[in-house]
Design goal:
Two copies of one chain form a homodimer. Chain A has eight helices and nine strands. With 224 residues, chain A is α/β, with parallel strands linked by helices. Chain A has a single domain, classed as Spore Coat Polysaccharide Biosynthesis Protein SpsA, Chain A (Alpha-Beta Complex). In chain A, β2, α2 and β3 form a beta-alpha-beta unit. The longest helix of chain A has 21 residues. At the A-B interface, α6 and α7 of A face α6 and α7 of B.
């Protein structure tokens, strides 16, 4: 017998910085392109959350008018830094799923694996010691996204006596910050997703002529 | 009731290049250190395979005398390029697990997830479009590690009519090639593993003073 426990949808927040998004992509994308790409990634994350049965709220540093976002999520404005804004949400309700907006490889299945964990705190770590997605079921837990937040969150969980689990997911670990990260979007992005479609519209494609995989851009395509 | 199907151990190979290993770590590690670190990673991979119930064979470009390796694995010498050497192994037996030697975060559980897949071909992709671990159950399948091998392997599987699954694992996706990858070893390496212990012995520790996580080295520790 297989016991399937269908869990109720969890309160879900997606923090989003409207101003100067994805500055580390400046070497390869113009400000307008970065804004468009950041919104595309946000839409992909919202779609994955929706497919996993959750109704996300975007905690945004400024109002968002884009209908592709507003049709999928409630918007709450909080212009404070990421840690403060997320902790304000956790103070309202200690049972919350927090998913970063720059995870365009996230799928409903990955989100489900995260939510299926029974631990007080469940973390999907990001590349470079970060915390890309987080399920909080312990009201005393607070986040600290500065620095190696994965290690800090383990310590904070220990301090408040909360059990902790780590979800081993490449898709959730892959936050898109640097030009080299764009390779992952083109290789692993779902065909129906917006982020890989944006990159292709910008003229990017994979280039593995020298044996290592890189991105190359058709310079005739520019959107300044 | 939970039905556990204990699968028999699978023929398992780990390719290993003895000469000039991990050249892209040259900016931060001396040749002797790179050799020691590469062997430590290999030992960690062999330990994970052993813990998952497999008896690995190291397909090495040259003889290995190191007792920490020879106590854990049979050694087969093949000095040809990676693709040719692995394909020679697949020609001998089409049912094989192939795991790269530079995956020091691999655990028995990740390996088990890979082997549990029922597909003809199961791939754990690596960062940057690579193929870090691979279960082959289709005798006609051959590898091609050049370039975006994850995409190539999907295509090769399609060409031979083999079903394909992808295992979503951050631990298996993280191959250690570049200096920035060392962060992952220090953050996520198991406490009992050799690779993080080597890095700490070389004087490396995490540094997140400026908000992003990097590695910093105690320059009084040198092993030229």
């Amino acid at each position: 017998m297989v016991v399937c426990s269908i869990k109720p949808a969890m309160r879900t927040i997606v923090p989003f910085a409207v101003e100067t998004p994805k500055t580390r992509l400046a070497p390869v994308l113009s400000p307008t392109e970065r804004e468009s790409f950041a919104t595309a990634m946000l839409c992909d994350v919202l779609a994955a959350l929706e497919a996993a049965g959750h109704t996300p709220t975007v905690v945004s540093t400024a109002p968002i008018a884009d209908e592709r976002v507003t049709s999928r999520a409630a918007i709450v404005i909080d212009d404070r830094d990421l840690t403060t804004a997320v902790n304000a949400q956790l103070a309202e309700d200690g049972h919350t799923l927090v998913v970063m907006a720059d995870l365009p490889l996230a799928t409903a299945g990955d989100i489900q694996r995260l939510v299926d964990s029974e631990a007080d705190i469940t973390i999907a770590p990001g590349l470079g010691g970060g915390t890309n997605a987080l399920v909080v079921r312990e009201p005393a837990f607070r986040v600290d996204y500065h620095g190696a937040s994965y290690l800090d969150h383990r310590e904070i969980a220990r301090d408040v006596g909360a059990s902790l689990e780590t979800v081993d997911s490449f898709r959730l670990a892959t936050d898109i910050d640097e030009p080299t990260d764009l390779v992952e979007v083109l290789v692993h992005g779902l065909e129906t997703n917006r982020a890989p479609a944006r990159l292709r519209a910008f003229g990017f494609e994979l280039d593995d002529r020298d044996g290592r995989v890189d991105i190359v851009r058709d310079e005739s395509v520019t959107t300044k």
